[in-house]
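Here we describe the complex-level prediction in full. Unlike the single-chain runs in Section 2.1, the two entities below were treated as one system.
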Amino acid sequence: MKTDTRNPVILIADDDPDDQLLIQEAFAERCANCQLCFVANGVELMGYLRGAAPESELSTDCPLPDLLLLDLNMPLKDGRQALLEIRADPALRELPTIVLTTSGNDEDKAFCLAQGANDYIVKPSRYTELLTIVTSLKIYCNTSAMQQPDSDNNA
Amino acid sequence: MVNSRNFTIFWLCAVLALAIAFGSIGSGILYDALTAGGAPGRLSLKPGGGLLAIVLSIGFLAVVCRKRWLATGLSITVLVLALAFASLATLPEAHAIRVLAINPLLLLITTLIAVSVLTAIWWHRGWRIGMASAAVSLTIGLLSLLSQWYPALAGFSLGSIAESTVVISPLVILCSFTLPFLHQVFHRQADVAYRGLLVVGAIGIVITTLSWHFLRLQHSQQVLERAQALADQLEASGTSAHAVNLALIRRLAERWELLEGLPPPAFLDLEIDSYLRDFPELRLLTVLDPKQRPVMTEARGLEYRFWLHEFLQQPEFPDWLEHAIESRAPHLSRAQQPENGRAYAAIAMPITPLPGLSWAMIAVVDLTHVFEGLTQHLNDNLSVRVTTDGLTLYDQAGPEQSQILLLSRTVNVHHDNEWTLHISMPRGTLPPDELYLPPLVLFSGLVLSFLLMLSHLFWRESVRRSESLQLLNNTLNYHLDQERALRSTNERILEFSKDILCSISREGIFLQISPACEDILGFTPEELQGQHYDLILAQEDRAATEQEVRLLVSGDHDKAQGFRTRLRHRDGSIVTISWTAEWSKADNALFCVGRDISDELMAETLTRERDQFFSLSPDMFCIVDLNSYFFEVNNTFVNTLGYSREELLGTSYLQLIHKEDHDAVVAAVSSLTEGYDVSDLHIRAQDNHGNEHWLNINAILSADDLIYVVARDTTEQRRIEQKLRENEALLKMAERVAMIGGWVVDLETGQSTWSDAVCAIHDVPPGQVPNVDDALLYYLPEHRQRIANAVQTCIDTGIPFDEQLQIKTAKGRLRWVRAIGHAVKGSDGSIVRLQGAFQDVTASHQAMEQIRRFAERQATVFESITDAFFTVDRNWCFTYVNRRSEELLHKSRDELLGHRLWDMFPGAIGSEFDENYRHAMATGESVSFEGYYEPLDNWLEISAYPSEEGLAVYYRSIRERKEAQWQLEATMQELERSNRELQDFAFVASHDLQEPLRKIQAFSDRLISRSDTLNDQDKDYLRRMQSAAGRMQNLINDLLSYSRVTTRAEPMVSCDTRAILDEVMQDMETSISQEQARIDIGELPATWGDATQLRQVLQNLLSNAVKFHAPGQAPEITLTAEDLTESHWTLVVSDKGIGFDERYAEKLFHPFQRLHQKEGYTGTGIGMAIVKKILDRHEATVIANSNPGEGTTFRIRFKRN
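The structure predicted for the assembly as a whole is:
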């Protein structure tokens, strides 16, 4: 359940602690009011989305996110499988999901977009680029929240 | 009833049985009506029905007996009777003749039956009427029968009483079944109405009817008796009941009189109440005063008081009361019937409570109640009715019409009161059980009689049929015997006939053939049967035979006689058969008799030839008998000896023969008689001129004891021989030409004689004859001893010699000669001379030598070739095996030669070797194949060449090649796998390597952005780290794209080079315009390749050309096509850029090799390596020509398709 449109919840599925840290810092710098939740793999991600208590220490409760940032290469269950499950689940079908991954592979990109990812972003190597991406995500969050006023009901 | 005859018989029998049954039952009814007609209480059947039944019975009998007019008359009678009976119904009720009236439905059925009979007799489609009548009758009969159980159907009841209904209904049903078949019955062929059947049927049915009749009477009697008993019982009990009532009233009256005055009302009430209570039939008690007014009345109900009041008002009441008072005794009134249907009677009793006063007591009795009480325990089918003066006192039975009155009896109850008792039986309801028995007996009897008749009929029928069958059987047996005899005669003829007897179908197939064919043709009959005659017919006779057969079959020729064909015997010889043949339409076969006339033919030919020979032969022939007389002579004989034929015949031949030869002739004749032939007997004979002729005689003795003699006049021959000798010179010439000559050595004189040819061979002049020793000197020394020995042996022992030797001629020439010699013995048996032939065989010897050398050389070749080789003959026996073959087959030549291939190598049977060899042998086509022969564990490559002699097989072991091939395949697979792994590795590695680099960059960015704590040098170091990490990232990306050349390869197609180039230029638009590059493009043909990769190539080349230019000088680039051929073309890309030293041209195409400084020109140096790799994949060559400062030209040779 969405808490407040002005306080978007962003769920980040990434197993790399470095990336988690960088993303957290980037959000803190550009989008401080966003509530970030982290999960480290596909299993935890699906657990979180389906209401189970997340094991990650970075989040204390589990509100349904306004945006999911999904890494593809994760242990246990990778992002591709997770994406398929999310799009197959009627309750999660509408969840805005942006793939944020190191893989610049065209095949991965084509696959994710075909399976319903809202966007596909290759992890930048420069922090400034990451800041740009976070800014645009923030904008994306706000616009998508406005465009989907009924997402409460869908959730 | 499948058999229509049996069917008819069945119905005939049924009609007959029905006729008899009708007659019998009708008679019974009539008898009953006449003897006991009208007897009261008697259950009787109506005589009208009986009369009709009898007439119908006779009618049916007439039908069965085929009495047309009788049946017609009777049917009309029935119709008239039915009409008459119908009109009876209009007569008044009481008319005596009405007893004949019968049920109208029954009349209808009778009419229908009569009409059916009439139509069956007179109209061939009568069965339709019969069918309709049957349907109506059957329906009515069934309804009538059912009416016994279902009163609603009572209207259909055919009988006036139940008893008659249960008899008539089944009869009608049975009768209705026969109606449709009356036509068939009348027109039947079977003789059925014979006396036996009629008697059997009549007896059976009459007995049945009698039984029925008596049973019926008996049961009827029983019912009557029961009714009688019931009436007695009722009379007794009724009378006593009244007596009791009267006595009761009297006693009451007497008690009251004793009281001398009426009792007090309370007591009276009690008294009367108690009476009413104790005697249920009492309804009311009252006391009348002398003025006849009721003073005291007690009743069971109000209606009885009303009734009493009415009763008192009746005019006859005072008289009746008066009478009762006067008689001083209880008096019963007439029965009264008020509206409730019950009957009451009053009892009056005078009482005189006070003298002089005539009071009366009246009691009302319910008579109905009395009878109810009496009859309530009677549980019988009988019912009771009691009447008096037209009043019904009690009625147990219901309406009178539905009852059959059994008995009426009048009972005197009281002095002037008479009642009548009626005992009856209900009509239409179920009759008493005993009444079922007679009809059951009747119908079971009828059925049994019918079955008896039927079985009698069938028995008779079967007897008749078996008799006729017996007759038929006898006839058949007779004919069969006849046929068997005929057949056996036929077979014997077939068996023993020397001629071929056969039948042939229209198509020429042997249907049957006698065993003689085995003797004549060598084929058994079984082999020929079913075969076409072409099988044995000689080719040249087929057309004629076919023609003849066609004519015979079509009937154009009645019979073929002496038609000759030549047939092939099984052993291939030709047999001539003379045929007599005739076409049988009935059997649809050609019957042929063939006689083997081969021998006759031969004899005929021989005779003819002999006669011709005999007369025309240049030899002298004569036939003489054993008595030395001439039997026959030929012309030559006559001509030679000059005697006429007439002179010779009948004379002894001995007269002609020289006396010195007589003994020889006699000896010859005796040797002939002993069985020896005579040949080459030389005798002399005289002709009519006395000249002597030498005759050479050959003679044989024939079977007819004639001697056949052939004599040749050799006189002339001797003369010719003389002449021949004279012509010896000519012969010598011939000898010379053939290089063959003769020689003679006279041992006595030691003188040799050589023919000219012999001289010529020795190169000495003709006529020069050396002695033996000199002659031997011509032979080469190494041969000389051999010929000397041979000659000596021949001289000593007479053993001939035949030697091929070499001589050196007089002229020094070497010659191969063949010397043949044999000894000639003189008259004393000693060897007198040697003679022989001498031939120059140099040429043939040389040819032989050549053949031998050739064979040797061939053997050497076969032995020395590395291929293994063997030959087999057509029986698969090894005829030649070379050395290599021995090695490969692990068997020596000696083991193999002469043995069958399949015996020596059984493992090959059924394998591809077997298949291929046999194919080659069978078709004559050579085969080549590879095969694995398991027993030898060897792969072989084999070529087999068939020939007349058999099969020549070349083969070699290809095990090494096979192994190398397998090895290669394995290596290739391994290579492919490692390639794949390498690609995977490159991809994964480059991907995973990038990850840490990215982190380094990102975190150093973070570090730099928090620059408060860092000095400039620190920041510089960090930037250098970042730069290095970025370069490494580029390197990795380049490596990735390098590896993708093979991993992302697309299939080759024909690509539009110009279009690809345009796309590339579009992508590079920015850099091109930035550098102000000028690009000229000529005509470019299509290229065979992977469009994406071609684009990469052009992209790299162009971007290099644009990139590497001297500062301040705009790039000028040209792309043109060169050397266009059908299959290839060359793309030339040249620029006027900075160029490079050609010495490093090779390095250009290696990954990460840069020819220029990093500063000023970006790039990692992978581009050209990718170009090279892509071009390698496209099988295109690239040459780079360049000079520093003068620009670079790349020449790429592409495939066009």
